[in-house]
Every structure is written in C-alpha cells, then in structure tokens.
Design brief:
Number of helices: 11
Bound molecules: ligand BES, zinc ion
Helix content: 10-25%
Number of strands: 32
C-alpha cells in the first residue's frame, strides 16, 4: 500500500502549508526506516538532512530510474529533509513516503512506464462538432461564482467541519447541474478522514468500460490546519470551478460520450495526495480501465507570458502531445512545458499506478501564484475574473469530447404553448379603458402564464385563465397600435407571439378639422378604359366624418365620358359623377358637400377613381381635395 504522504511540519515554511500541530493525523511522530522516492537532484539534500543527526553516515540510493531515486530513510529525518527541500529546491515536501520497497519500486517503475506501456487509446482530433457545440456554453461569470462559493468556506481542510461542508457543497452543486440527466450519477467516496471525495459519472454509450477522468482537488490548506483561513481560490477552487463549468456545458448540450467520463473532486490532496491515492488504488484493484486522466490544479492565475503549461513529470508524453494539439485546435492559447520536480498533485497518484496523465498548469513553475497555502489565496489576486480559467475550461471540454468521443443529443422534447389574442379585434377602433384578452394552450403540459405587451411599452402577466390585461388607451396617441401576447408553459418554453393591430381613437384635444390635398397630380385619364386611374389621399386626425366637402379639377373635352368615384378608407363608395354633363368640358367642383359618407372613420387612405368610358375625348385629373370636420367621442 502506497501511503504517498508528504510530511507536514509543526513549523511553517514560507509558501508551504503547515498543519495544525494539535492534529494527530498531520503530525505523526514517527521514526524508523521508511522508503522514500525523491528527485535524483535532491539526493545530496537528503544526505545533508541525514548529516544533521548522523554525521558521516553515507546515503546510497536503493534504486534509480530516470530522475527519481528510491532511498531507505529514517522517519526521524523527515522534518529536516522537508525544511531543506524547501530551502534548497523551493519544494513543499518534495518527497514521497512508501510503506514497502515494492510500493516505492512501483512508483519508480511508473516514472518510466509510459515508454513501455501500450497506448490505451488512439489520440485523434475528429470530433469538432461536439467540441464546438459545447464551447459557446462556457461562461466565465459562472466560474467566478463557483470560485467565490468555494472560497467562502473558512477553509476546506480535510479534517475540518468546513472541509466536510465544502465537500457536500460540491456534491450538491454537481447533483443539481446533472438533475436533468437520469444517466448521470454523483457519488461520495468515503475515506478514513472526514472529507469525502466527490465523483460524477457520465456512462459511455458504446465504450462504457473505458474511463476518462477529469479531476482537481477540493481541499485547501494554510498555516493553522483545521482552524486556518484558507480560501484556496486558486489552489484549487479554480480547478473545481473549471470542471464544474465543463459539466454545465456537457449537460446543457446533452453530451452523450462514447467512453465513460468521470469528474473527480479529490479530498485531502494537500496532505499527501491522499484522496486520489485511495481512489486510484481502488480503481487499480477493481481493474477499471482508465484511459486518460487530466488534473486541473490551479487554473486562474496568469503568472507567465504563455497561457497553459504542461507538466512533464508524472505525466504521459503521448497524452501531453494530444493535449497540446487540443489547445492549438480548440483553445487558442499558448503552451509552455515545465516540471513540478516532484509529485505535486493528484495526477501523480494515477501516474504512479500506471495510468496516462496530464497536468495543464496556470504558469511556469517558477512563476506560480505566490499566495497559495495562505489566507491571501483569493480571486482578487486574479483580478476577480476567470479569464485564465476559461482557457482550461475550453481545454476540459475538448479533452472530454475528443478522448471520450460521442455526440450532442437533442434536448428532451417539449412542445411550446400556443396563444391567440381575442380582444381587441384586429382592425377595430378602441377608446378609453379596454380589456386585452387571449386564449392559450399547451399540448404536453400546462400554460404557466400569458404576458401582454401593451402599446405604452408596459407588460402585464396573467397566470390564470381567462388571460387578460386592462389597458387605458389614453396613455398612447390616437392611431394604430399593436397588442401582443406571449404564453409560457410549465417548462419555461415560450409560444410564438400573437398580436393584433387596433386603432386607438380618443376624444378631446384634436378632433379632425382640415383640408387634405392630393399630391402626385396631374394624371392623364386613359381614353375609353374601364380601369381608369386611382389617386390616393392620406388623411390623419381623430373622429368620424361630420361634414365632408370635395373639391375637384378635371379637364376633359367630353365630361359625359367620365365616371368619378370617391372611396372612403373603409371601402365605402360615393359616385361623384356618372357620365353626366353630356358634351360639356371639364368637371370642376369647389367644396361640393357629400353627406353619404358621414360617420365614416376619417383617418386613413381616401381614393378618387376616374374612368373614361367612351372613345375620342381625353383629359387629366389635375387636383382634388377633401375638407373634413369630425365627430369625436
Ligand atoms: N497545487 C499545489 C501544487 C503546485 C503548487 C503545483 C505550485 C505547482 C506549483 C498542490 O495543491 C500542493 O500544494 N501539493 C503539495 C503536494 C504534496 C502534498 C504531495 C505540495 O506541493 O506541497
Ligand atoms: Zn493544489
């Protein structure tokens, strides 16, 4: 069993967390020989730490592979070693403790494992529709919100009550995002300490036994352990918020992966990668076929010119090439390469058990956020935005869709409701206070509400049938106005709007009283032609016709040929002259009173129609006008 414990110190090291000295789990008072793995560059440092207690004792590596050495080392020297690792290598911890030589050798072997391990999957970029369908769903503001929610806990320490509450919060947040999907499950992974890891599973449709893991750690740490103030906004609320936003996009687009996707919020990373070690051990013993692991630990602090840094140690070279291709194709960010120099996050737990991992990181190692593991690790350090984390969210979506494959589903069927305005009647004239009403129906649910958009710009929402709104028409000018209704059903889907146009006609103020002259004249009257000519005259004003007088000038050499008709806006007609006057010239009228059209709505387009019904003589419509006075309510 690989304990992978980084020993935390009762004294604090700048930039490193120190556990509460009163916490028995964090300050194991151990001595006796243990096996450790440590960077080969730090063997001299381990020798120096040993020299403090046993000067002259020579330390010889038991095994070496690549850049990693296995040492037989006394637990009594861990304290001195941690301090020296920090002082000389700027590493917090920087070595791993193993219970047996076999565990240490396993860790060592996996350092070289990817060179000999057969490729679990072929890394192809052939699923752009799925990636590009989800990318627009990602929203930086929601990442900000999640970082704020997580950093609002006093700490997320693995043994504190806050650490339990924050674990529940992640469980509840993921559960509610996934609530619309019956295939997605969210579970708690219980450990030997209080804080639980959280695992969300989207089962694969065609390759369910191949598992893709997107993870980050949920815990935070700062000096003071369980009672510390450890907002951990960057380390690693940013990673959990990034993963949570990837989840939202996958659910929003009803993504159905071919391979199984698991999102993991590991407990107790900060005290020795313990949550991920327990899970990876469990998965290994169950023979679960994990084809890829990506770790998001610190995504929202842009410490370097390049955007995304791929850690080379404890990761898989082939998958790192694939991740680089994903970034170039879908993220549009610049990529750097660096190394932690030790198993710095949960990817190492998977790597040490032979699984292919990647660790895309927020900065170069030398430029990482200096506020982590302190009470100053707040989002304000990153400008209170999630612009940098968005690049990692895009990468997360691309990784999910190109490694797990699969496609976007259609959203579960729901027919929107229908609505129809029933009052006022289209084309009617209305005045005073009126009732606007509508009927609505929903074929596969219930109508929740009908919203009325009224001519004065106000809206009224009615939630009970019969649906109606009252409207005071004096709030708007007289004339044509639109009354619109939109229904919403029980799922929140909206109907197509229904609208009618009615004329508002209120009294007072300006009742029509004026002379309206036709324009666009003269017009030649075609000889012996039943169609004739039509001249239009727009009239504006309130009221119905009280008095109407027509003035008209037609020159013609035989007025007995002509039929002249006046047409009101409603279509009502009055024949002004019907081939009367014999061989006389011209029709000239001055304020000729017409009573036949009294009571007609004055406003609208009036027409004068002139037909020449016999051959030989011709002429023109030169001018015409209407003098109208109105009656108003
Ligand atoms: N997020 C850090 C690791 C990190 C810090 C990576 C800075 C790169 C730059 C992580 O949460 C952490 O603190 N890890 C421990 C690992 C240990 C407990 C095995 C560490 O670095 O001390
Ligand atoms: Zn971290």
């Amino acid at each position: 069993m690989n304990r992978s414990i980084k020993f935390l110190l009762a004294v604090s090291l700048a930039g490193c967390a120190a556990a509460d000295p009163g916490d028995p789990i964090d300050t194991p008072e151990e001595e006796g020989m243990r096996w450790i793995t440590i960077g080969a560059d730090a063997i001299n440092t381990a020798q120096m730490a040993l020299d403090e207690r046993l000067p002259g004792r020579v330390l010889t590596p038991v095994r070496m592979a690549g850049n990693v050495a296995v040492l037989s080392y006394d637990a009594a020297d861990f304290h001195a070693l941690s301090e020296l690792m920090h002082a000389r290598h700027n590493r917090c911890g920087g070595f791993m403790v193993h219970d047996s030589l076999k565990d240490a050798e396993d860790a060592l072997r996996s350092a070289e494992a990817e060179a000999i391990a057969p490729l679990a999957v072929s890394y192809t970029l052939d699923n752009p529709a799925t990636v590009n369908g989800m990318l627009p769903e990602l929203q930086a503001t929601r990442i900000v919100q999640m970082i704020n929610d997580l950093s609002a806990f006093q700490n997320r320490y693995y043994t504190s009550s806050f650490g339990t509450q924050s674990s529940d919060f992640i469980f509840n947040t993921w559960s509610s995002i996934a609530a619309s999907r019956t295939d997605i499950t969210v579970e708690r992974f219980t450990h030997t300490w209080a804080q639980k890891s959280v695992i969300l599973t989207i089962p694969g449709t065609s390759l369910p036994n191949e598992v893709v893991i997107i993870g980050g750690h949920q815990d935070s740490i700062a000096s003071g352990g369980a009672t510390s103030i450890a907002p951990g906004a960057d380390d690693d609320a940013s990673g959990i918020a990034t993963i949570t936003e990837v989840l939202r996009a996958m659910v929003a687009k009803n993504f159905r992966p071919a391979r199984t996707i698991k999102l993991m919020a590991y407990a107790a990373e900060e005290v020795g990668l313990r949550g991920s070690a327990a899970i990876a051990t469990s998965y290994q013993s169950q023979g679960i076929n994990v084809v890829g692991v990506v770790q998001f630990d610190m995504t929202n602090y842009k410490g370097s010119t390049k955007d995304i840094w791929l850690m080379q140690d404890y990761t898989n070279a082939a998958q790192n090439t694939f991740v680089t291709n994903l970034i170039n194709t879908y993220v549009g960010a610049t990529v750097g390469v660096d190394s932690c120099g030790y198993g710095c996050s949960d990817h190492a737990s998977w790597h040490n058990r032979g699984y292919p991992t990647s660790m895309p990181f927020e900065s170069a190692m030398s430029q990482y956020n200096p506020n982590i593991h302190t009470s100053r690790d707040r989002i304000s350090v990153s400008g209170s935005n999630a612009d940098h984390a968005m690049k990692f969210a895009r990468l997360g979506v691309a990784y999910a869709a190109e490694l797990a494959k699969g496609s976007l589903g259609t959203t579960p069927g729901n027919n929107p409701p229908t609505v129809s305005v029933t009052a006022p009647t289209a084309g009617s004239t209305v005045s005073g206070t009126i009732t606007v009403s509508a009927t609505a129906a929903d074929s596969d649910g219930t109508v929740a509400s009908v919203r009325f958009d009224l001519p004065d710009g106000s809206t009224v929402t009615d939630t009970t049938a019969p649906y109606s709104a009252t409207f005071n028409t004096t709030l708007v000018a007289n004339g044509a106005h639109v009354f619109r209704a939109t229904a919403m059903d029980n799922t929140g889907a909206s109907s197509a709007p229904s609208s009618v146009t009615a004329t508002v006609q209120n009294g007072g103020g300006t009742c029509i009283d004026g002379i309206f002259n036709a324009t666009g004249l003269p017009i030649a009257i075609p000889d012996n032609n039943v169609t004739g000519i039509v001249s239009t005259l727009p009239v504006v004003g309130n009221g119905t016709v009280a008095t109407l007088a027509l003035s008209l000038n037609i020159n013609h050499t035989w007025r007995g040929d002509l039929v002249v008709t006046l047409v009101a806006p409603s279509g009502a007609q009055y024949i002004v002259s019907n081939r009367s006057g014999g061989s006389a010239d011209n029709i000239i009228l001055t304020n000729s009173v017409i009573t036949a059209l009294n009571g007609q709505t004055a406003a609208g387009t009036w027409q004068l129609k002139v037909q020449d019904r016999a051959s030989a003589d011709i002429g023109n419509l030169n001018s015409w006008s209407l003098k109208i006075t109105g009656t108003c309510p």
